[in-house]
Amino acid sequence: MAFWKQFILSLIVIIAGFAAWVFFVPGAGDTMRAAGIPESLVSRIAPKTAETADADAPARAEGQQRGQGQGQGQNRRGGGRNGAVLVATEAVVQGVVNDRLNAIGTGDAIRSVAVTPQATGTIREILIKSGDRVKAGQVLAKLDSEEQVIARGQADVAVKAAVEKSNLYHNIKSSVSRMDVFDSEIAEQGARLQLQAAELNLARRNITAPIDGIVGIVPVNIGDNVTTTTPIVTLDDRSEILVDFWVPERFSNTVAVGQPVEAMSVAKPGQMFSGVIEAVDNRIDAESRTLRLRARIDNSSDELRAGMSFSVSMKFPGDKYPAVDPQSVQWDSQGSFVWQVTDDKSHKVRVSVVQRNPDFILVKADLKDGDKIVTQGLQRVREGGAVRVSADVAANAEVATQ
After folding, report:
1. What is the pLDDT of residues 76-112, one digit of tens each?
2. 207 closest CA partner among 124, 147, 148
3. How far apart are CA 272 and CA 261, in angstroms?
4. Least C-beta-crowded within 10 Å: which of 17, 128, 242, 358?
5. Which residues lie across from 372 on neighbouring strands?
6. How far apart are the first and last CA of the chain?
């Protein structure tokens, strides 16, 4: 389409729209007068608007008189009897904050030991496998012990010789000096000590369990040369699980040893395990502003493992605050407030929001349980104004549509 055709078509649309606005919008003439258009031109363009306004004046006066005769305020906009504003209210209830703590922690066996040999040598025998339950003192593995067996035999022979010599000197005290008798007794004691040392060295060729527990994966094999720093196996006593977790410092004065806790493992969702706080750290971490706690969880059923992650929860009495409907909280230049209804009159009460929840808001304010707070019809409520509280569902619906 050519440009001049587009221009003419746009001009026609604009003129038609202006004409429709003039003839169908009440007050168009007043708007044009306010814009500075001469009265002579306005009266020619919008004569019907002026005439209609003059014709409607008696009807408006008649409607006002009829409204006054019916009670001044009982209309669809919700005015109550004697000018009272129709509103809906809800009672203030008590809400609790900081009454529950949730944290993530890591579990560990109540006792866990990495078993290492007490001597250097070659592994000759392994007597356990992964998953076995062992008792304290049970032999887990054995090292080569030929030299220690020989040393013990030599010490045993030396003891026997020292005992025979000591007995002989005691029988012939009259023929030997007292010093010779004393030396024989010292030699006997020395030989016995050498025998004890040899037996100890031989016993250390057996690697034993220091605690009752469950055997982990055995990382060594028969024939491996090991030292006193080589881990042979890890034993876990998981009859109870210790869970370390961290809580915000605001709970530092509310947690104590012996408080009950509940823990849920990621591996067993929905299953709660009960326990108690076993230890509370003596300081707040300066970087994270958290406090370390340790909980002890019963694991007599052996369902939990060391290293598991846990969701730990604790319950507290908490701090109580008035709870109000979220719709009731209003704002002005001075902050937040609610409208309280007392003796059928509305009063503004300043509030400070403590916590927002989907169903209610906890506030710090001079409110108590049972106080009536306006939740609907707030647009026309004024300080000290008369209000009429809706008493049924139909009235509530009327307030909601205002």
Report:
1. 444 545 578 899 999 999 887 767 888 999 999 999 9
2. 124
3. 10
4. 358
5. 91, 341
6. 51
Considering the segment(s) 100-139+210-316 as one domain, its CATH architecture is: Beta Barrel (2.40)
CA distance readout (Å), 216 to 19, 113, 140, 230, 233:
92, 10, 12, 15, 6
CATH architecture assignment, domain 145-204: Orthogonal Bundle (1.10)
Q: Where in the chain are all domains bearing CATH 2.40.30.170? A: 100-139+210-316
Q: List phi, psi (to 5°) of 173.
A: -60, -30
CATH, domain 81-96+320-400, list 2.102.10.10, 3.40.50.700, 2.40.420.20, 3.40.50.740:
2.40.420.20
In angstroms, rounded to a whole number, what is the distance separating the alpha carbons of residues 389 and 86?
6
What confidence tens digit (pLDDT) does each residue in 141-151 have?
999 999 999 99
Q: Smallest Cα–Cα separation from 328: which of 356, 364, 355, 361?
A: 361
Residue 263 bridge partners (DSSP)? 273, 312
Per-residue confidence (pLDDT) for residue 129, from 0 to 100: 93
Local structure of 51: helix, strand or coil: helix
Contacts of 281 (CB under 8 A, 6+ apart): 291, 292, 293
pLDDT at 151: 93
Query: What pLDDT is attached to residue 173?
Result: 67
The secondary structure of the chain in percent helix, strand, coil, rounded to multiples of 5, reads 35, 35, 30
Whose tokens are 């209000």? That residue is 387
Q: Which residue has the higher pLDDT, 99 or 373?
A: 373
Q: Exposed, middle or buried, 97 (CB in 10 Å: 0-12/13-18/19+)?
A: middle
Is 0.85 topped by the overall pTM? no
On the CB side of 202, CA atoms within 13 Å amount to 16
Residue 5: CA count within 13 A, CB half-sphere? 2
Q: What digits encode the pLDDT tens for the residues 332-362? A: 888 999 999 998 899 999 999 988 887 888 8
Alpha-carbon span 256 to 276, nearest angstrom: 10
